[in-house]
Amino acid sequence: MSNKKLSSPLGEAKVPLLLRNEDEEEQQEEQTLTRKVLIESKKLWHIVGPAIFSRIASYSMLVITQIFAGHLGDLELAAISIANNVIVGFDFGLLLGMASALETLCGQAFGAKQYHMLGVYMQRSWIVLFICCIFLLPIYLFATPVLRVLGQPEDLAVLSGEVAMWMIPLHFAFAFQFPLNRFLQSQLKTAAIAWVSLMALLVHIFVSWLFVYKFQLGVTGTAATLNFSWWALAIGLYVYTVYGGCPLTWKGFSMEAFSGLWEFLKLSAASGVMLW
């Protein structure tokens, strides 16, 4: 009887001890999983956060232009809206899609440690997109007759066509800026893109205020502000790339960029149609 009395308390004590150990292990596993999720989320947002901000800043330029045009009158607001949403919107989607072909090519080259090819691919994209911009110029040059055919009022069609003419420099800025953006994104240099986008956004706000309220240039001045801001964005990314931002991937201009243009064009066109 004495042995049973001694053994029963020990037996009762083992069960809670095992349960406590299992609970502690589960808590440790949960804490480990939570810590891993937080670490991965931090790494992800370090990349995605600046990319989201740069995209918002880019679209905000178009929105801010419409806001300033709204202070000029209903006709001016309608003209800017048509130019932005119809003409520039078509152009923006197609060129952005064509430049997105760089994401695959630059990602593969970077992973294979063929760093110099990133700069070559970007130059090929510049060539292809600039040629595409030349073929798309009639959209801007003949915007007024096209809008007439679509049934727009005469005054709105004429003013929208005039605004579209002033946005031609913006049209070519897309061809220069989009490949730069994809080139830097493939190297995870999204923070640089975000800072340059912030600079361009501030430039756009200041120039819009200057042209509309100080110089009183009207709706054409409002449209011209997009040229300043988008070219400031493109030049800022270019300066960062050329002057020390990408020492491994930018080796200067190369004649190699003119080879394989047909294959690059087919890939860019497929990517552009898919995204557009």
Automatic annotation (TrEMBL):
Transmembrane segments: 44-69, 81-105, 126-143, 163-180, 192-213, 228-250
Ranges in a coiled coil: none
GO cellular component: membrane
GO molecular function, one term: xenobiotic transmembrane transporter activity
Keywords assigned by UniProt, alphabetized: Membrane, Transmembrane, Transmembrane helix
Highest taxon above the source species: Eukaryota
Family named by the database record: Belongs to the multi antimicrobial extrusion (MATE) (TC 2.A.66.1) family.
Stated name of the protein: Protein DETOXIFICATION 27, variant 2
